[in-house]
Specification:
The complex is a heterodimer of chains A (456) and B (217). Chain A has 16 helices and no strands. Helices cover 72% and strands 0% of the residues of chain A. Chain B has three domains: 28 residues; 122 residues, no CATH class; 33 residues, no CATH class. The chains are: A mainly alpha (456), B mainly alpha (217).
């Protein structure tokens, strides 16, 4: 039964006693305090050590060659591409929150958009590393770009792998611009509050002379809208193009038309799970519970429920079409997925992605911090396994039984995967420490609308 | 502490930043385009040789055929660098005491090869075949320039992959009658290289492949 308090909660993005000054104080304090909470130091120590392991693994890979990974014939793509697709997917939640929800005037997004966007950028950085290091000669990644050269050698424009270069490149560019531009007024706030010249110089440099004049605001709003409109199609296009890497090939289990929407839904699903994983501790440790409210978390859990169900539908539909299509290899590919040598991965994926989020049908679970945190972690695990299942299971048993194989990851595969999380969290922790984690100006704007206009 | 840490002129730098950010990529492209081009880095390479052998004298003035020294050029992939004996065929009698020829005489006596420096050096992963080109009507001059006028041999063309492909895609630019391959001063009939080249291409059925494995095996 819905109570009056629930209704109020749903229509009020922030708790009412948050005055403007309080918002500024709450957000800026995090970046200004000389000592962050102890938890930050512990987290940073762990994350940066894991990041070092990541770069050490990559260094070893460059030195020794691709053989340090478990990739083999016929599993030419394994952890490398799995990690790439996983990280690109994570980013999508940030873009959805900042661009799509902005265009649909979903005011509640303001509490979480800034760090969801930051998450997008860090995820894309992690993702971009993997295609670069899996190419065998990792010192030649610029061959992916159409640069005029004395060899007259051009990338294969008919290959979806090349479309990927452009899709992800555009995505990274627009995301960084959107994130940075949205941050300029808040950087100016930090600059104006700075007590030391060094901080004033750095924040001053990056706020590019923002004074908050109405002309500047006018232009800012226009530019923000334009960038939001540019970023919106990317939510759909980037992971569609990523799915073409597989869908345009003839490998049974890859060659399916459902891939683009299925990948996009999965990306948003996994991305929101990552936002929840980051938001829950961040609001806890940095005292942001009034800005990242239970309503934000609940809304994100609802999105996870919806996209998780779409993903579950896609899993089912793949099986149906494999049977209905009547292609022997395709039918085998899916039976092999569920009951073959990689069945353990398939059922891990299914449990984490399809069963877990169904708990969010219940309000009690949607609003429970421990439940959502655990489910979100499970979803992240599940979404990684989804890519692993699609890539490795399909490749390991294709048309010719004579060429079948079983991929086993090496320790370097594992340290590279785990290490990429180190890089991601290191960047995220630095962001929490030095940049405005919540979009103060935007939060104030909706606060003004709600409390000045409607109630007075 | 003053309220403003940036001096007044800082406002100007913001406008200049646009020019710099816009101009920097153009500058970078220009530097890479010209500075890294093989035209800049490779053309004109003229290493010092152990003996100041003059092609201008031997080929240009005395008229020795290319194949007298580079005798495998029309039969094998590699155009041979002549052994000391080839030099000594003449120099056992001519300029017997020349100081410049001292390394040749020393080589003939000891059997140690003269260490000529390779001028036209392709990467090891390129398998270029001289005979395939020479016997189809690509003149020496097309790749090596007017060697008969070079006192010291230098690299005349870029030898880049784009340069190879340029000819493989349109060989009529450089085809000549097979009998004229070693003619340094060849001029196409009527002065129209493309017309002659097209005719020769059809006549001799020249279809140079441009797939990777043609040169990279």
């Amino acid at each position: 039964m819905t109570t009056a308090a629930d209704v109020k909660q749903f229509h009020t993005p922030l708790e009412a006693e948050n005055a403007f000054a309080q918002i500024t104080e709450n957000v800026c304090r995090i970046a200004e305090t000389p000592k962050p909470p102890k938890a930050w130091y512990i987290a940073f120590a762990i994350a940066s050590s894991i990041m070092v392991m990541f770069f050490a693994s990559i260094g070893y890979l460059v030195w020794e060659g691709i053989g340090v990974w478990g990739n083999m014939n016929p599993v030419y793509w394994a952890f490398d591409i799995t990690n790439f697709v996983f990280w690109v997917g994570i980013g999508h939640a940030g873009t959805l929150i900042s661009a799509v929800l902005y265009l649909f005037r979903q005011d509640w997004r303001t509490g979480i958009n800034r760090f969801a966007e930051a998450m997008t950028i860090f995820a894309v950085i992690c993702a971009a590393i993997f295609p670069g290091i899996h190419i065998g000669r990792p010192w030649l990644p610029y061959w992916m770009f159409p640069i005029p050269n004395q060899m007259d050698m051009w990338p294969q424009f008919r290959s979806p792998l090349e479309w990927d270069v452009f899709a992800v490149g555009t995505y990274a560019t627009v995301s960084i611009l959107f994130w940075y531009m949205g941050m300029i007024p808040d950087l100016a706030t930090l600059r104006d509050r700075s007590r030391s010249t060094a901080r004033r110089l750095v924040y001053g440099l990056f706020s590019m002379g923002w004074r908050g004049s109405s002309r500047q605001w006018h232009r800012y709003e226009k530019a923000y809208q334009l960038l939001a409109a540019l970023a919106t199609p990317l939510v759909l296009s980037v992971h569609s193009v990523v799915s073409f890497d597989f869908a345009t090939s003839q490998v049974p289990g890859w060659h399916t038309t459902i891939f683009p929407p299925y990948f996009v839904a999965g990306a948003i699903f996994g991305g929101f799970a990552m936002v929840v994983v980051l938001a829950v501790p961040a609001r806890q440790f940095f005292g942001l519970k009034r800005m990242i409210t239970m309503r934000h978390l609940e809304n994100m859990n609802i999105i996870m429920l919806v996209t998780g169900t779409v993903v579950g539908y896609a899993y089912g539909m793949e099986f149906f079409i494999a049977w209905y299509g009547g292609v022997q290899e395709e039918g085998f590919a899916f039976i092999n997925r569920a009951f073959g040598p990689y069945a353990w991965a398939y059922w891990t994926m299914l449990t984490c992605n399809v069963l877990g989020p169904q708990l969010f049908w219940f309000k009690r679970f949607r609003r429970s911090i421990p439940v959502m945190f655990v489910i979100a972690i499970f979803v992240n695990v599940g979404m990684w396994f989804e890519r692993f299942v699609i890539i490795v299971t399909s490749l390991s048993r294709d048309f010719l039984p004579g060429s079948w194989g079983y991929f086993v990851p090496t320790p370097i595969d594992l340290t590279t995967l785990i290490g990429s999380f180190g890089l991601f969290f290191t960047l995220f922790l630095l962001f929490c420490r030095f940049l405005p984690m919540v979009a103060m100006a935007e939060v104030k704007a909706i606060h003004y609308n709600h409390h000045m206009h409607h109630h007075h | 502490m003053t309220r403003f840490v940036f001096p007044r002129w800082a406002n100007k730098t913001r406008d200049l930043a646009g020019i710099v950010l816009g101009g920097a990529p153009l500058y970078l492209i220009a530097v890479v385009w010209y500075g890294f081009s093989p035209k800049t880095t490779d053309v004109g390479y003229m290493p010092e040789q152990p003996v100041p052998y003059s092609h201008a004298l031997h080929v240009g003035e005395l008229g020795i055929d290319c194949r007298y020294c580079h005798n495998t050029v029309d039969k094998a992939a590699h155009a041979a660098i002549p052994p000391t004996e080839t030099c000594m065929n003449c120099h056992a009698r001519i300029h017997k005491t020349s100081a410049k020829l001292e390394p040749i005489r020393a080589s003939a006596e000891t059997g140690e090869a003269v260490e000529w420096v390779k001028v036209h050096d392709l990467p090891d992963y390129v398998y270029f075949n001289h005979s395939a080109h020479v016997t189809r009507g690509v003149g020496c001059v097309s790749c090596h320039g007017r060697v008969d006028k070079m006192v010291e041999v230098y690299q005349h063309e870029t030898l880049s992959m784009a340069w190879c492909l340029d000819c493989h895609r349109a060989p009529e630019q450089h085809l000549r009658p097979v009998s004229e391959v070693f003619n340094m001063a060849y001029e196409p009939e009527g002065g129209d290289q493309l017309a002659v080249g097209r005719k020769l291409r059809e006549q001799n059925n020249i279809n140079p492949p441009i797939d990777c494995s043609t040169c990279h095996r």
